[in-house]
Amino acid sequence: MRKGLDDTLVILRHKLKGGIVARDYDPDLLEIEAWGSELNQVWTNLIDNAADAMDGKGEISITAAKTDGGGVRVSICDNGPGIPPEVAAKIFEPFFTTKPPGIGSGLGLHISHNVVVRHGGRVDVESEPGRTCFIVTLPMTLPQGVSGGTTPNR
Ligand SMILES: Nc1ncnc2c1ncn2[C@@H]1O[C@H](COP(=O)(O)OP(=O)(O)O)[C@@H](O)[C@H]1O
Ligand SMILES: [Mg+2]
Fold this sequence. Notes:
Blueprint: H1 2-11, E1 20-25, H2 36-54, E2 59-66, E3 72-78, H3 85-88, H4 108-118, E4 122-128, E5 131-138
Parallel strand pairs: 1-2
Antiparallel strand pairs: 2-3, 3-5, 4-5
The structure holds adenosine-5'-diphosphate (ADP) and magnesium ion.
């Protein structure tokens, strides 16, 4: 989990130039059962969106904490302009984007949401001007009966 987030930060370093990234990971974070590469796509999409929102000047904060049930809650927050309510209603729809053609595919949040739900988790959004957080909550174990392309790892 921690490593996945850090790997994603390394990959996205070029997009984060100028921006500050603050990290706060719970020291006794437990490993969860998950498809690691799929979750890494989720972190990539959320951090990518946060970086776009701040336009290279703001701050992204990433926190990872244990939930009561032994799962994890990862929050990725930025201090960009926020998501207006009429936009927020559509952000998980496939191909919905407010970015110029060729920049946004509008698929990042749709795919991320599907990945998280397949893991038995949820994505919550809190946004106001100056602070937007995407909060991903994942359980300790995968739900019964779901299958992925690969063997889940811990
Ligand atoms: N952190 C954020 N701050 C402001 N708007 C956001 C943020 N994250 C997502 N959005 C909005 O949600 C839309 C959909 O995001 P996404 O599915 O990742 O597609 P894309 O990034 O290709 O536009 C974005 O175009 C943007 O309007
Ligand atoms: Mg995106």
